[in-house]
Amino acid sequence: MPNFDGGHYFLTVLAPVRTDVLVADDGQTCSPVSALHRALYVLPTALQSPATTKIGINSPFSRNTRTHFARFAILTDVVFNGRTERNALEVALRGPNPAVAEPVDKLPCPYLVFVADFDARSGDESELRAYLDELWRTMGKELKSIFSACYGFEGIDDSRGFQDYVLRCQIETTMPFNDYWVGAPQVPSLRQNWLIGPAAVSAVVFLGALVLAILHVGGLPWLAIATIGFVALVASLFVAYLTVMRNGAVPFPTAPHSDLPSVLKALYLQQAFTRFALANQGVDAATLHAAFGRFIDEHRPDDPSGPTQAAGVVTTLGPTPVAPYNTQTAAPPAGALRSGRS
To answer: Where are the bilayer-spanning segments (predicted)?
Structure first.
């Protein structure tokens, strides 16, 4: 199932935007797409740059611990890729007239695009509904201000209605992107002899019986045997095709530590250990051993619940401390640069 792969659900939603006129409580009017632009403009983004960090208002998607990536966009129309390519000589001889415009695809209305990649145990509808319910409980106000500009969302003000609406507007994600596997996942491979063997035997029977029938070799009904071999060949190839396609549709297994809490913990430890390494340059073995023990006790690497990095931020820790090199307690590291002439 393309929507689900490697322990993640890849949601793609196309919601049609209304084309009538919206009237606000104060009597002002605007188009739904303008209201949608405004709602998305004021939606906070994640704190992943100096400018957004200075603002200090995190994305509402950071209120849950399942969303890896999420994005809203407005699709106003499809791109015109130009006329259909044709052979110039053929067009000159047979047409069509190049001066006559070809049909151009146009969307009947703008569309709101909503995509999200979140942790899931399966691709079942229940998993999607559970995630959408969590979204509604943690950011229902923002979702309502955005989707209220879409067709069919009128009167929806609860989680179940939001779930039903998203499922109606969902389209299949045909090429999900999952980058958490470091090595090759352990998946069962198909045995080639079981796939090719029946087809090979059937082909030999078909061709051999057909040759003997053409040569009029008596003794057996070779033409009937050739027909049976041909039917068996087609059937074995069809079964092999179904087997390959069925196995190819099986989702990849979940990569180790690829859920959002584990990823956030890994980012936190990456920063914490970098600061630890910089702060303990040049210390003796006993001091380093004791410091590393304190590091383990403080940061608890095996506990993804905390301490950890918050969702939607670049860093949870402060500036990187750099300890001065201690010439009294340690020798220079191997390969260190030395000033002066040798």
So the answer is: 194-216, 222-244
Give 234-258 pLDDT, tens digit per residue.
999 999 999 888 888 888 888 888 9
Q: Which of 149, 148, 166 is nearest to 157 (CA)?
A: 148
Decide: 170 and 11 in contact? Cβ < 8 Å.
Answer: yes
Residues 6+ apart with CB under 8 A from 227: none
Tell me the three state secondary structure of residue 150: strand
Give residues with Cβ within 8 angstroms of 131, minimum separation 6.
Answer: 9, 11, 66, 116, 118, 120
What are residue 4's DSSP bridge partners? 9
Q: Which pLDDT does position 335 carry in this prediction? A: 36
Beta strands in the chain (DSSP E): 4-5, 8-16, 22-23, 29-30, 67-75, 111-119, 170-171
Q: Quick one: pLDDT at residue 317?
A: 66
Please choose, from the candidates 165, 170, 145, the residue with its C-alpha nearest in 3D space to the C-alpha of residue 44. Answer: 145
